[in-house]
Design a protein that fits this description.
alpha+beta, 4 strands
Amino acid sequence: MPTVAGITTNLDGRRKLHGADKKSLRKWAVANGGKPFATRELALAWLKSQGGEKDPNTAPAPGAWFGFSFEY
């Protein structure tokens, strides 16, 4: 199964967006024990360490940064 990883300040919004695009979305997981990363830079470092596809929507935004991954 293909794997996607990304970072966001809006977990619910990203999950809904990917769920609408990838109907077979499964195994949604939030990185860092479900807690936000301390900085966007730490979230980006986590993202770079992940295999598979990368969610291209990582533009700066205010808020706490979360990492996520899923299969489809």
